[in-house]
Amino acid sequence: MTASSSVNADPAELAKFSELAHRWWDTESEFAPLHRINPLRLGWIESQVPLAGKRALDVGCGGGILADSMARQGAKVLGIDLSTKALRVAQLHALEAGTPNVEYREVSVEGLAMEQAGAFDVVTCMEMLEHVPDPGSVVRSCAELVKPGGWVFFSTLNRNAKAFLYAIVGAEYVLNLLPRGTHEYLKFIRPSELAGFCRSAGLDWVETKGLEYNPLLRRYRLSRDASVNYLVATRRR
């Protein structure tokens, strides 16, 4: 499936991440922050729902960092994305690493929801909502894809002055943690807005965690401070 005007994707965003696709599994590359936060978000997901034996979907999987780790925890995982290059990298890594029970497909979340409604125990959509034109559509489709009582996890960026200073000025221009232009401030999503999308989609908000970065120690940690990066656990009614 290719990006078009009927697909909930920004061609410029797809091009941006496609250009960097070959660096997804370089732990010192532009994707280093994702490698560093992945154990935190994986552990948090497992604290809500043990993944062994579950059928899991990773929406906007990119090069497969989270999808691969969920499969290694015993889940049967499908990773989807609209970046052909990123998916090829994910598939190659799974082959080289011998990761069991992980597959990748180039399909939109809306398209997959039409095929496999209620098919998954766990759905994750991390660091993606702030990159699409219609995040509410993504939330609705994630809710359609999970079984009743199943879990849907999101992570994104809050929209306020602190988030602008930390996530754009600090991360992209001062500390060079991310390439400049990675994020657009106006696409950041307040928790109240995400909560509205979840309510409309039939998802109950269970828990929120903040993600903080200490530039002196170069370490990330989960906290109660959701003013910049935050993660949300929800369940389908």
UniProtKB/TrEMBL annotation:
The keyword Heme does not apply. It comes from the Bacteria. InterPro entries: SAM-dependent_MTases_sf, UbiG_MeTrfase. Its EC number is 2.1.1.222, 2.1.1.64. S-adenosyl-L-methionine binds at R41, G60, D81, M126. Keywords: Methyltransferase, S-adenosyl-L-methionine, Transferase, Ubiquinone biosynthesis. It catalyses: a 3-(all-trans-polyprenyl)benzene-1,2-diol + S-adenosyl-L-methionine = a 2-methoxy-6-(all-trans-polyprenyl)phenol + S-adenosyl-L-homocysteine + H(+); a 3-demethylubiquinol + S-adenosyl-L-methionine = a ubiquinol + S-adenosyl-L-homocysteine + H(+). One of its GO terms (biological process) is methylation. One of its GO terms (molecular function) is polyprenyldihydroxybenzoate methyltransferase activity. The keyword Transferase applies. It is an enzyme of class 2 (transferase). Pathway: Cofactor biosynthesis; ubiquinone biosynthesis. O-methyltransferase that catalyzes the 2 O-methylation steps in the ubiquinone biosynthetic pathway. NCBIfam families: UbiG. This is Ubiquinone biosynthesis O-methyltransferase. It comes from Ramlibacter henchirensis.
